[in-house]
Design goal:
The protein is of the alpha/beta class. It has two domains: about 10-215 and about 335-405, 3-Layer(aba) Sandwich (Rossmann fold), CATH 3.40.50.10540; about 240-325, formyl-coa transferase, domain 3, CATH 3.30.1540. It contains 17 helices and 14 strands. It has helices at about 20-30, 60-65, 80-95, 105-110, 115-120, 150-155, 175-200, 210-215, 215-225, 260-265, 280-285, 290-300, 305-315, 325-330, 330-335, 380-385, 390-400, and strands spanning about 10-15, 35-40, 50-55, 60, 70-75, 95-100, 125-130, 205, 240-245, 250-255, 320, 340-345, 350-355, 400-405. The strands form four sheets. Strands 8-7-6-1-2-5-14 form a seven-stranded mixed beta sheet, with helices on both faces. A hairpin with a 2-residue loop joins strand 9 and strand 10 (about 250-255).
Length: about 400
């Protein structure tokens, strides 16, 4: 495999659940050495969350497998002084430290940003939290814990998902976590790039609330300019837009302007609708959506998803099927892109997972090392990187400071 963009970069992950692990997985896919810190005996909580891949008595959690490839596992008890000493040693030799523990946890261990920066002025410290932790920018919610659904709710995303006669709904499980991991990796890349000219690291402060507000920019702009607040499932300025039922499932389409509306009307055999006063613009079409939906549904009821998608795309109306998981795994476009990358785990076998987007022309193929066993690399890291001798590592294991797989 050719050189990777982050070859030579060492990342320490004080991480659990999804946001931190997804962030460091992106960095590991890009070639960084990722040392994942886990609690002895239990590890990342997602190791124990079903469903599991199982083979010959071994089992691994799908959620853990999905976000922890290309990493090393160091099982370390940071509640003990000896454990914190190990972490200080790692911070001194790392380029990046990613922290998505409960807000302030690392500071209470005496290892806050000021300490880490003094240990290693070149270190990029990236924290992922619900509401942000950068001094002076914490806000009144800075100490609150948060899961993805809290960020979806507070950012207004949840208020826009579903229909006006139903309660607000979540999007997909972990969306805010995954997006926050991606945004944090982007911030880390910026900080590493700046370091090439300044020689200094810095704090990358990633707030899940901020990130989801950024994702919901359309709501911000609409209210800022027009003082409009969209209701769930009640379009005001763009229509048709949504899912429509064909013979064998649903398709999704969006008509943002009159040019595409004319194409759609012609394709469904109703060119007269393009000149109808009730469809003169997006606002008018939104007002008269029941009439428009009836014509689209009539056209679709005799067509399969594939027939409808092919006809509409041929006419210049961007359309796609509403895929289920099995459809994605059978999709020829996904196969052609190689997006479901195989990861061969020596304990439970080969499974496919989503690769890192985007693709780089000089680095199309990604490394695919399986997720580590808890403590699999403890001895390697302590002896090879920190210079501990075998007797010292054995003593730490006997004291419960570390676990060796």
């Amino acid at each position: 495999m050719s050189a990777r963009p982050l070859d030579g970069i060492r990342v320490v992950g004080l991480e659990q659940y999804m946001a931190g692990p997804y962030c460091t997985m992106l960095l590991g896919d890009a070639g960084a050495e990722v040392i994942k810190i886990e609690r002895p005996g239990v590890g990342d909580p997602r190791r124990a969350m079903p469903p599991f891949a199982e083979k010959d008595g071994a089992k691994k959690a799908a959620g853990f497998m999905g976000y922890n490839r290309n990493k090393k596992s160091l099982a370390l008890d940071m509640s003990k002084p000896e454990g914190r000493e190990v972490l200080r040693g790692l911070a001194g030799k790392a380029d990046v430290l990613v922290d998505n523990l409960r807000p302030g946890a690392i500071g209470r261990m005496g290892l806050g940003y000021d300490v880490l920066n003094e240990l290693n002025p070149r270190l990029v410290y990236a924290s992922i939290s619900g509401f942000g932790r950068l001094p002076g920018k914490e806000g009144p919610y800075g100490d609150r814990p948060a899961f993805d659904i809290v960020s979806e709710a507070m950012s207004g995303v949840m208020n826009l998902v579903g229909f006006d006669d139903k309660p607000p709904s979540w999007t997909i499980y972990g969306l805010a976590d995954v997006y926050s991991g991606m945004v944090t990796a982007y911030g880390i890349m910026q900080a590493l790039f700046m370091r090439t000219s300044t020689g200094k690291g810095q704090w990358v402060d990633s707030s899940m609330y901020d990130n989801m507000l950024g994702l919901n920019e359309a709501m911000i702009a609409l209210y800022s300019v027009a003082k409009q607040s969209n209701s769930r499932g009640v379009p005001k300025n763009v229509y048709p837009r949504g899912a429509y039922q064909a013979k064998d499932g649903y398709i999704a389409l969006n008509v943002p302007d009159n040019r595409i509306w004319t194409r759609l009307a012609e394709t469904i055999g109703r060119p007269d609708l393009a000149a109808d006063e009730r469809t003169k613009d997006g606002t008018a079409r939104a007002t008269n959506r029941a009439m428009i939906d009836a014509h689209i549904e009539e056209w679709l009821k005799s067509r399969t998803r594939a027939e409808a998608v092919d006809a509409l795309n041929a006419a210049g109306v961007p359309t796609g099927p509403v895929n289920r998981a099995e459809d994605v795994f059978a999709c020829p476009q996904v196969a052609a892109r190689g997006f479901l990358m195989p990861v061969d785990d020596p304990e439970v076998g080969e499974y496919r997972f989503a690769r890192t987007p985007p693709m780089l022309s000089e680095n199309v193929d990604l490394p695919a090392a399986p997720p580590p066993r808890l403590g699999q690399h403890t001895r390697e890291v302590l002896e090879g990187l920190l210079g501990y001798d075998a007797a010292r590592v054995d003593a730490l294991a006997e004291q419960g400071v570390v676990e060796i797989a």
